[in-house]
Design a protein that fits this description.
Length: 137
């Protein structure tokens, strides 16, 4: 049992995290539909599951804090917070920080990888990105 707890702690500190970033733009280059972006946003969250279905650890989505970058190792043990819903919560927080709620080119991807652990532990990644457009007046 002690080895299992050490293994979970190792997973939590070795790469289970959430990353979010707002990149503000000062450009006049429009998107395909003629809109001019004011920023881009990307967030990704990771979780680990034992045997692919027992949650071990997960990064916590960005929903508070100052600045435009949240690169942290805030971990939630025995839960799976790497979901599209949680990434959209982070996106809404980023839109509030930028001051605009219009987006374009929203992309989301999910990826599972378990061969690195001989199929004992599955690593799940959810990534979401978009362009933030200027609010219409």
């Amino acid at each position: 049992m002690k080895n299992l707890i050490y293994g979970i702690a190792l997973l939590a500190f070795a790469g289970c995290s959430s990353y979010s970033e707002i990149a503000r733009w000062d450009s006049t280059i429009p998107t395909n539909d003629g809109e001019v972006p004011v920023a881009s946003f990307v967030t990704q969250n990771f979780s680990y599951q034992l045997l692919g279905f027992i949650p071990l650890a997960s990064g916590v989505p960005w929903t508070k804090g100052d600045g435009d970058i949240c690169d942290r190792f805030s971990v939630s043990l025995f839960s799976d917070k790497a979901t599209l819903d949680n990434n959209l919560v982070s996106l809404r927080y980023a839109l509030d920080r930028v001051g605009s709620h219009r987006i374009a080119q929203l992309r989301t991807s999910e990826r599972d990888d378990s061969d690195w652990s001989f199929y004992l532990v599955n690593r799940h990644e959810v990534r979401t990105s978009c362009l933030i457009l200027k609010d219409k007046e």
